[in-house]
Design a protein that fits this description.
By secondary structure, the protein is α+β, with helices and mostly antiparallel strands. It has 3 domains: about 90 residues, Rossmann fold (3-Layer(aba) Sandwich), CATH 3.40.50.20; about 60 residues, ATP-grasp fold, A domain (Dna Ligase, domain 1), CATH 3.30.1490.20; about 130 residues, 2-Layer Sandwich (D-amino Acid Aminotransferase, Chain A, domain 1), CATH 3.30.470.20. The protein contains 12 helices and 12 strands. The strands form 3 sheets. The protein has a 5-stranded antiparallel sheet with strand order 10-9-8-11-12. It has a 4-stranded antiparallel sheet with strand order 4-7-5-6, covered by helices on one side. Strand 8 and strand 9 form a beta hairpin. The chain is globular. The structure holds adenosine-5'-triphosphate and magnesium ion. The site of magnesium ion has 2 residues, from loops.
């Protein structure tokens, strides 16, 4: 079986003239290498394709694959994560992970929260800020948390993201809107414990492969799982397996989210506890990082006895089952 690999490699975009910052969240060579090697160890033939424009070139000269292992997050537009899946749908080539609807929706954190809340899943009250004037409509209980509405990897999040007053809110919104003009998400701050749940499988067949608690080493009320924290995770945080009671509640919330959104094959749901002790949905990652060493999904999987090969094998099993290729 020939598996094409689509990915956004930092060095490919750097060669095209994109800056270090623009490409900061894209994959490094070692991540792709590990996925490719693992697929080969599982008995698949692999073929590296690259990003969406490489895919278009390859398709236009007639190349085809039995399945594509897709981890492209895309470069431009709110539909950027959906572009590769949408193109592959045109050619009826099956691929791993979620479809264009899920990947467009979940890149927009506010819209995702509306859908999730409609299913009764707890998530903090929020407002989308697209212009400074929108700050006047914020009628939420402080402290609040401000982040870009459509970014990942902790971009635009730091210790100033938590705000206590209208004045602080306006200062951070002004700054962030300049850098992220597509909009911000202002949410009520969740002061409690933080967890991330790893899920494999598709929709209602999704199953948890484990939960990890993010415990901040500095006991700082502003502790958040930002880009800096993640980059320095060995020093800044400890990862723990939480007690059964809270673990069960978080896993139930994560699986319900996975099911109602129809996410596929694998990913993570991020959760934090509110001031009443209830776990709340923060966001879902249907294209969770798959770096063997640095990414949360593999890290939490190892804590629960999985190895990297088993993660990739189960992602492939789920994708092949959907495509009728078992
Ligand atoms: N409402 C909130 N209350 C408290 N902390 C929050 C809230 N929203 C986000 N955070 C903190 O900020 C972190 C990053 O938020 P979020 O997961 O939405 O961003 P991201 O950039 O998409 O992250 P990822 O790296 O998982 O892609 C969370 O893990 C949490 O520590
Ligand atoms: Mg997150």
């Amino acid at each position: 079986m020939i598996i094409g690999l689509t990915y956004d490699l930092r060095s490919d975009y750097r060669k095209e003239g994109y800056s270090e910052e623009e490409t900061a969240e894209f994959d490094r060579e070692s991540t792709i290498e590990a996925i490719e090697l693992t697929l080969q160890q599982l008995g698949y033939q692999t073929d590296r394709i690259g990003h969406v424009r490489h895919l278009l070139q390859r398709l236009s000269v007639g190349d085809r694959w039995d399945m594509v292992f897709n981890i492209c997050e895309g470069m431009h537009g709110i539909g950027r994560e959906a572009q590769v899946p949408a193109v592959l749908d045109i050619y009826q080539i099956p691929y791993t992970f979620s479809d264009p609807l899920v990947l467009s929706l979940t890149l927009h954190k506010g819209m995702t929260k509306r859908v999730v809340r409609d299913y009764g899943i707890p998530t903090p009250g929020f407002v989308i800020i697209e212009r400074m004037e929108d700050c006047a409509s914020v009628d939420l209980q402080y402290p609040l948390f401000v982040k870009p509405n459509a970014e990942g990897t902790g971009k635009g999040i730091n210790s100033l993201s938590k705000v206590n007053t209208r004045e602080e809110l306006e200062i951070i919104c002004r700054d962030l809107l300049m850098r992220y003009p597509t909009g911000l998400l202002v949410e009520e701050f969740l002061p409690g414990r933080e967890f991330t749940v790893g899920i494999l499988g598709t929709g209602h067949e999704g199953y948890s492969i484990g939960i990890m608690e993010i415990v901040y080493k500095k006991d700082d009320a502003k502790s958040i799982y930002s880009y800096e924290t993640k980059s320095d995770y060995l020093k800044a945080v400890e990862y723990k397996i939480p007690d059964t009671e809270i673990a069960e509640k978080c896993i139930a919330l994560a699986l319900e989210t996975w099911k109602v959104l129809g996410c596929r094959d694998g990913g993570r749901v991020d959760i934090r506890v509110d001031r009443f002790g209830t776990p709340n949905f923060i966001e879902v990652n249907p294209l969770a990082g798959l770096d063997k060493v640095h990414s949360d999904l593999p890290i939490l999987a190892y804590m629960h006895g999985y190895d990297f090969e088993r993660i990739i094998a189960e992602i492939m099993h789920s994708a092949r089952k959907r495509a009728g290729l078992l």
